[in-house]
Amino acid sequence: MLEGAKPLDVGIPAQVFTTRASMPYEVRVCGAAPGLVTGGDGLAYHVAHGLDALAWADIVFVPGYRFPDREDPPRAVVDALVAAHERGARLAAISTGAFALAATGLLDGRRATTHWHYTRALMARHPLVRVDENVLFVDEGSVLTSAGAASGIDLCLHILRGDLGVAASNHAARRLVAAPYRSGGQAQYVPRSVPEPLGERFAAAREWALHRLGEPLTLELLARRAGVSPRTFSRRFVEETGYTPMQWVMRARIDLARELLERSQRSVEQIAADVGLGTGANLRLHFQRILGTTRASTGAPSPGASDRPAAGRGEAARCRLAGSLRTVAIAPLSAARDAGEPGAKATKGPTHDSHRHQRIRPHRTQRAARAAGA
């Protein structure tokens, strides 16, 4: 991990992917060399592994670090990240960890995000990166980035939901006392805050809709439930969630369908009717349009904006996990003085400028998916 690593950025992936019987991951914290690393906010971290740990990680997390715009991480760290990616590992950055990924060149030509305070600096330092300053996280497949602090939880739950499915993601969210799912497309912050009473009514309207997804839902009906005009409801809804009301409803229906396909024995036709999509053919159509997948295939996770989490990696069938270990590495990189928001297990104690990485190795899973019937 990097010097000056932020405790929250370090702790989030360690907490989400923590090694326990119910989670098929092995978490390791690593750096340029084993030892103590000075963290931010008065903490320090002890890491037991060096860069060699990246050779076996399935996921490498790079937590954020302070002053990322001053200089790139050491060449050994950059090379290790590139080698891990070439081997097939996914690289995920929390907050300003995106600067470390950008230094590898792997973000060139791709969308990425970082903490809103540093988006302009990331654009200036790495002009080939397509920086999106208005989202919580960006999933580009083998490289993922998130905004600051709490959005790291959203990114980790997004990965977990893709790997293991909605049940595991829900379980982890409950353990963290966190919202099960926030859309990656949701704004990092709303420039004009929604008045509190209005925000509460909108939240109540969404909750009301989630319990009636099998019924006809229209913009007018939702606006009436929130006590505002359809025009006001639509405008404020987009500001708050990043989606129009009916886009949100469709994604909520798809998310619920994925959950039912994963966890129930109901037929595709029955599930389509239960979530308000009518027929199995219509369900498959929307799966392909929104998720880029059919029930029996695997693909990218949903960008859904619903308050329900999605099931695993576009896999719209009931899954069961079976044993082989998957590795997640949290790799906080050491950088210049005061650099650092990377993630790993935190302990007290000072340290020097060596880059530290924390790795988490997730169990590889075997999924038994029911036939799509397509």
Question: Would you kindly provide a written description of the structure presented here, covering whatever features stand out?
Answer:
By secondary structure, the protein is an alpha/beta fold. The chain is 36% helix and 12% strand. It has helices at 7-16, 75-87, 97-103, 119-125, 151-164, 166-176, 196-210, 219-226, 230-241, 245-263, 268-274, 280-291, and strands at residues 25-30, 35-38, 44-47, 59-62, 90-93, 111-112, 130-131, 137-139, 143-146, 326-330, 346-347, 357-362. A hairpin with a 3-residue loop joins strand 8 and strand 9 (143-146).
Q: What are the SSEs and their pairings?
A:
Layout: H1 7-16, E1 25-30, E2 35-38, E3 44-47, E4 59-62, H2 75-87, E5 90-93, H3 97-103, E6 111-112, H4 119-125, E7 130-131, E8 137-139, E9 143-146, H5 151-164, H6 166-176, H7 196-210, H8 219-226, H9 230-241, H10 245-263, H11 268-274, H12 280-291, E10 326-330, E11 346-347, E12 357-362
Parallel strand pairs: 1-10, 4-5, 4-10, 5-9, 6-7
Antiparallel strand pairs: 1-12, 2-3, 3-11, 8-9, 10-12
Helix pairs in contact: 1-5, 5-6, 7-8, 8-9, 10-12, 11-12
